[in-house]
Amino acid sequence: MSRDAYVNGRYVPHGRASVHVEDRAYQFADGVYEVVAIQGGRIVDEEPHLDRLDHSLKELRIAWPMTRPALRLVMRELVRRNGVADGSLYLQISRGVAPRDHAFPKSSPRPALVMTTRQARKPNAALLEKGAAVITIPDIRWERCDIKSVSLLPNILGKQKAVEAGAHEAWQVAADGTVTEGTSTNAWIVNDRNELVTRKADRAILSGITRLAVMKIAGESQIKLVERPFTVEEATKAREAFLTSTTSSVLPVTSIDGHKIGGGKPGPIALRLRELYLGYMAAPPKDTA
Ligand code: PDD
What we know:
- The chain is an alpha+beta fold.
- The chain has 2 domains: 4-119, D-amino Acid Aminotransferase, Chain A, domain 1; 125-282, D-amino Acid Aminotransferase, subunit A, domain 2 (D-amino Acid Aminotransferase, Chain A, domain 2).
- It has 8 helices and 15 strands.
- The strands form 2 sheets. Strands 7, 8, 9, 10, 11, 12, 13, 14 and 15 form a 9-stranded mixed beta sheet that branches.
- A hairpin with a 2-residue loop joins strand 1 (4-7) and strand 2.
- The longest helix has 15 residues, at 46-60.
- The two termini are 28 Å apart.
- Bound molecules: N-(5'-phosphopyridoxyl)-D-alanine (PDD).
- The site of N-(5'-phosphopyridoxyl)-D-alanine has 15 residues, from helix 6 and strand 13.
């Protein structure tokens, strides 16, 4: 089926969608993005994603390219046009197009907005059954990982390292030995008191929208949550481990640097949270239904 992309005010065939060579995201990675899940044709957690987008834009002093209600309309229209029932929507906003100069352009160009959609890939049954293997790598990123910037070089190098090691994800480790997060996922463990442990969303990690939903779901299910950093050593000895993201939902982790976690099998708490999260995705929230 043909699909459209949205580029600066126009819906254009995906294959012909393009931006200007002097778009500042292209030259400087001077832009931000969001990846949102689509389930049953509906955008999941739309408002938390727009809140995080607002945070990223404000921190970089990039203006909204249109009002929030207008952006919502464009997102929904693209999903409708492309007939996406289950999949994801990518949206990116850059500071705009201007002659190359590191400082912000004086003329304040119009921020550039692009959007694409993708149908969901088939869930990887083997990965779900076996759980994901994770390696650890030094976190070489900057001190503002709370901003969802398109500047992702450390993340892609880390993910490539994982792929080349036959793993699914790389958990990044700060200088103090604590795990910050995956290259495109948040990191969690379950300790020997069956408590969930995940890092507080400060500037060292992205405040994942899936992370927020899972925290809420855990609370409703009387699963205790502790927001604090954990070390690689603690993770390798944990009862369970898992990761969360819009595209992976809740994915059990069964090995870290080759050490088996939970006897090498997906843990019951991770599996339960996965089920609950998938149910949450499928049920429209009461306020926006
Ligand atoms: N990645 N941490 C990082 C560094 C991420 O890039 C992401 C999301 C997450 C999880 O956030 P969320 O639950 O809101 O998806 C954590 C997206 C999916 C990506 O870059 O494709």
